[in-house]
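README: folding subset

This subset contains proteins for which both the sequence and a predicted structure token string are available. Records are stored as plain text. Below is the entry for Elongation factor G (414 residues), shown exactly as it appears on disk.
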Amino acid sequence: MSRDLKYTRNIGIAAHIDAGKTTTTERILYYAGVNHKLGETHEGSATTDWMAQEQERGITITSAAVTVFWNYRGNKYNVNIIDTPGHVDFTVEVNRSLRVLDGLVFLFSAVDGVEPQSETNWRLADNYKVPRIGFVNKMDRSGADFLAVVKQVKEMLGSEAVPLQLPIGAEDNFKGVVDLINNRGIVWNEEDKGMTFTEVPIPDDMLDDVAQWREKLLESVASYDESLMEKFFDDPNSITEREVLDALRKAVLDNSIVPMVCGSSFKNKGVQTMLDFVMELLPSPMDQEAVKGTNPRTEEEISRKPDVKEPFAALAFKIATDPFVGRLCFIRVYSGNLEAGSYVYNSRSDNKERISRIFQMHANKQNPIPNIGAGDIGAVVGFKDIKTGDTLCDEKNPIVLESMVFPEPVIGLA
Ligand code: GDP
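--- output ---
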């Protein structure tokens, strides 16, 4: 069993403390659970069942990586959320997670905007060229200002931040967004905790702003795509939603554009639409270049493509203890495939060890899986001698993955 890498996302959530990372992560787990059930059963009642269960239990994320499923435009995505510590004291850990993830949701508070740790984490993400989406949270709070945060991202972080939405209503009355790509207004439904939304006409008093910001969006995206630029000058109305999304994805992948969306995770608004954009715009493991390393025997530089047919290569990025399954080693697999119960070579220790089980961690359970393939993230049980940063690989094709180079902590921003 190997998954289609096109439908895998390895993402982290980065934020200054208090911007709402915990709340947003919990909502992601919640919505993904409901969305997954809906995708399985095609019955609305699954939503309420799942909601009742989860309300009783409460969902929290305690794992270094948690896997959720998300149905988007007819495809089921496998999303691994890698824990990305917010506090500046954990810069090394942030580096470690940035090394293994493919894309970031960068959270800002709509009231506080760009804060010192946003700045530190943004620079670290720049070092690793991690494509990202900006999520401006807390839109329900007094003083919330989405466009002011977009401006700060441009001015303080020097990135081409481009709004994909404009909020409908503000503060207490924040209830929806206009999607500037398809010119559609939506309002989240309160009765199912914002799981679904209702389409609404663009409010009259927003028509001018929407037209103006949509034009800016099209122009920004078109400037990274020649054929779109021609259309933009000929007849902007002939540009389709798919064309914008495809060109935007390219610009996001090469870090030219940071798309910005908004919501209030606390009020169950906007997390779902943000997740849709994660599937649409952030890279899959297949979009990554081949990972580089050296052959420990010859010192020759080698690389591994994100393909299950390549020799196995994975990086151990976190060792943790789970009360139910014991010592877990979280790995990011770059190439090849690893079977539970097999032997795997560690290029640091020059030893082979038998791994007993492989798990994918979910919000409410550990799911044993028979194997783990290129592009995926999971937790392995059975190692006796393992350290974070170790490369696990095929003994006949050994590789030491580029060691995690930790830039000096950024001092003086706080
Ligand atoms: P973290 O430190 O980034 O993990 O932030 P938390 O998720 O713990 O949130 C910090 C505080 O902000 C908590 O009191 C949350 O209830 C609150 N909060 C989070 N998201 C929102 C939001 O969208 N709106 C409002 N009004 N409060 C929020």
